[in-house]
Amino acid sequence: MHSSLTELLENMKSGLLWVHRDATVRYANSDACLRTGLAPGHKLFDPDMAAAVSAAVTQQAARKLVSVGVASAPGLPPPDLRCRVIPGLSREDAFVLIAPDASEDAGSAFDNLMQVIRTDLRDPLTEANDAIVLAREHGGGPELDALVDGVHDLVRVLDKLVDLAELWGSGALFANDRIELWSLLQGVWAEVEPLALARQIKVRFRAQTDTASLATLYGSEHWLRRVFLECLEAALRSSPGGAVLDIEHRQMGPRAVIVFRDCGMFAPRAADEVDLPRSEPAGSRPPPAQRDARDQIGFKLCQHIVSLHGGQLREEDDDGMRNFVIDLPTGAPYRNDQSQLDIVQAQQYARDLAALMARARQRGADPAPR
């Protein structure tokens, strides 16, 4: 019964929040968590939604509203969420149903695309990489070197796409490595140091505690290494030559928070940025901000890996500075089989429902007073 209820709520086409009358989220399925940023135990941050929940509980009537969701990627505007709030199954709670996003209709097509990339692109990419290595070894003049460099950049972008496709259908990472964060960062730095030297960029790492005693991570060392490699490369590429890149480590209870301070990594191209001066028609608007393919795919890959480890990839605004944050759980392996808190909430909900039904049956069986 309990697992069936969880399965039912998770597979609803709508996002679903089960909210107590005091605006505390008691349960949120995966879609609602992703689109609202809320999780069990959180309070509703939208006062209009909280008011709608209160009205649904006290008046036992449905309400409609439009709320603001969480942006799907840094630099993108937060979406509007079309919500319907209905009374719950007790007098103390309500359900918030979040209508599917229109873009989700293309979800199955995107899944099919990921499948094609995963199965049909991996081997040709490996062969192309091997050919590049051979071309470099045999030489061929500056023209061939320039061609090889261009093809190599293209292959790296495609390689990111293949890795994203490989992970796309995964609900979990089947690895439980014990990862020392400082050793991981040192290994990644050794790979990107030539890029930093070429661009004369200094990187400073600061931690609240001794670097050798940073909290331990658990999961896939291969994929977490890939996250820090992608992020550090993107940070170095986006920083101006001669800059100083500050990276901070903060231990926030059971979570490690890595902050790239005032960093433009994975940033969309500025709306007023152009390659060459050119005249614009009167009244024309600047083009919308957008990332190049390398940064779009790299960000999505890192976001997916971090999510599979129970963490978050996000931006924070600190007095006008754009910080980029990697937030990961530490101290124990993460289990991505529906969090224990969600299971407890679903079990408690099933118990509440059973108790309500039992009381209703008891009232029906009691003899009428004389």
Automatic annotation (TrEMBL):
Q: Which residues cross the membrane?
A: none
Lineage top rank: taxon: Bacteria
Region (Disordered) residue spans: 272-292
Segments forming domain Histidine kinase: 116-332
Name by which UniProt lists this protein: Histidine kinase domain-containing protein
| Organism field | Rubrivivax gelatinosus (Rhodocyclus gelatinosus)
